[in-house]
Design brief:
two-stranded antiparallel ribbon; 5 strands; about 220 residues; alpha+beta; about 20% helix; 3-stranded antiparallel sheet
């Protein structure tokens, strides 16, 4: 923060009416619908700023795909189903996309509620998830199936130990999830569909439902 501006000011409450920046753009106008940046005339390479104004419009999830297909957005970030049909094919020479592998879509359990507070149960659920199918159906195959280790692929593939690759698979398997539940304190349900801790008063067999939150672009 510039000393000559903030001297004697409380940085927690002071609103700088003329903030000093060294970047190529400064704020021109702002509204809840769109905010606009303009080229910074005092930028050290001002003559190299070929784009003089940049607008960032507010776009809803419902209108995002249509605006992209109409060519009204030059650059955007977000998952687009059938991106080749909606966007690339309109101008193959200039319309391109890249989905970087920079994170995971996680299934988060409520650890305060049985039976999801049990590690063997969570392991059994994990081994039953068809990650390859999720990659193909939910992400249309744009991204590699997630690794149960939590390491993002392909960027961190070399860090996934060979032994973990053997333990964890992108395909669901019955034997590993059965082995997770067949241990002291767990008993086979009478229906033969799974095991539950004999010491707990759980429904046998138990089931759960995973919901997609409102507003999510992922299928539930």
């Amino acid at each position: 923060m510039p000393e000559h501006v903030y001297t004697g000011k409380d940085p927690m409450t002071f609103t700088d009416p003329n903030p000093i920046g060294t970047g190529p753009y400064t704020l021109d106008t702002f509204s809840p619908q769109v905010y606009t940046y303009k080229a910074n005339p005092t930028y050290w390479q001002a003559g190299k700023i070929s784009v003089k104004k940049i607008q960032f419009p507010t776009v809803s999830a419902n209108s995002f795909d249509s605006l992209l297909g109409q060519g009204r957005l030059d650059w955007s970030g977000g998952f687009v189903a059938h991106v080749d049909q909606i966007f690339v094919n309109k101008d193959k020479a200039h319309n391109q996309y890249w989905y970087p592998a920079d994170g995971l879509v996680n299934l988060v359990s409520n650890l305060k509620r049985a039976p999801l507070d049990s590690v063997p149960v969570r392991k059994a659920i994990s081994t039953a998830i068809d990650r390859a199918a999720l990659s193909k159906v939910a992400a249309l195959g744009y991204e590699t199936a997630a690794s149960p280790t939590g390491l993002v692929r392909p960027a961190r593939t070399t860090l996934i130990l060979i032994r973990n690759t053997k333990i964890f698979s992108s395909r669901p398997t019955r034997r590993p999830r059965t082995r997770c539940l067949t241990r002291p304190g767990y008993a086979r349900a009478r229906t033969g569909s799974g095991s539950v801790p004999a010491a707990r008063n759980w429904p046998s067999p138990f089931s759960y439902r995973a919901d997609s939150v409102t507003g999510s672009r992922w299928p539930g």
